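User: My instructor asked us to take a sequence, write out its structure as tokens, and then describe one feature of it. I'm not sure where to start. Here is the sequence I was given:
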Amino acid sequence: MSHLQLSVNIEALKLVNKLCTDAVKFGVSVKEAKSGATIIDAGIEAKGGFLAGEIITEICLGGLGEATLFHAKYGDVELPSISVFTDNPAIATLGSQFAGWKIKVGGYSAIGSGPARALSLKPKSIYETIEYRDKADKAVLVLETSKGPPEEAIEYISNLCGVKPKNLFLILVPTPSIVGFTQVSGRIVETGIHKLTTLGFNPKIIRYAHGYAPIMPVHPDYAEAMGRVNDAIMYGGVTCCHVEFDGSDETLKDLAEKAVSSASEQHGRPFIEIFKESSFDFYKVDPKLFAPAILTINNIRTGRAFKAGRLNVSMLKESVEE
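Assistant: Let's start with the prediction itself. The structure tokens for your sequence are:
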């Protein structure tokens, strides 16, 4: 199947239908907005849970990836974890999952991720890089938010996606929730690929990718929750990319070393401390920090693989015990 034939919205909609059909099992609630849009609450007032987090991770990947829950031991810390595999890495992660749509309408704000971004082209530079856009007449968007969207926000989103409100599906996920923690850890592969892309690597030559990360204990406070979900990625997250690279393998070795969280001078401290010092502004945090703890790059042209970084169990423990 060529990239031109792939529709992340149509693929994700298959999973959305499953989520809605089995709403009780997944602990979500489904309602129709006045405009006709479908609103799926996955943790604001609804119960949510690990299973909802797992399928929402796959929805964020545009139906082009598989997420699986498992249990792992990180040193002497035992944590639930999530693994992700995709055979369409650039489209699934950068073209869909990346939380790159900052939505602000009136007094309402949320972070949008998932397939609808490939219709609104938010941000446009990513879609120019991966040379992809979707043309579906239905849109699926995951909103990281603690509030349901007002009608003006629904209208804004549907207009930018070029779809009718009745063909818009919005999934609401608050960060301080089981679903929130699960789907953020499920971004481990996207984090690694985005990091490589910011370093100048062409994401289109990444043929396959997989990874896993721990799911930390949920904290009800937003700032503390943000601290824990970021600690999970940068101290416990593992990403592997299989690439077709014609250049020098030494370039890949150097790239791997620059694309892990330990490349940042702020590495080795709880994210909540760094976040507070940055006045809770992500743009003031060293961007080198937003990376997996371990990254492996396998050049399938030469068979060589380069691994960089390390798990930081002591930081995971400190984050859990805060």
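For the description part of your assignment, you could build on this observation: The first strand starts at residue 29 and ends at 32. Try explaining in your own words what that tells you about the chain.
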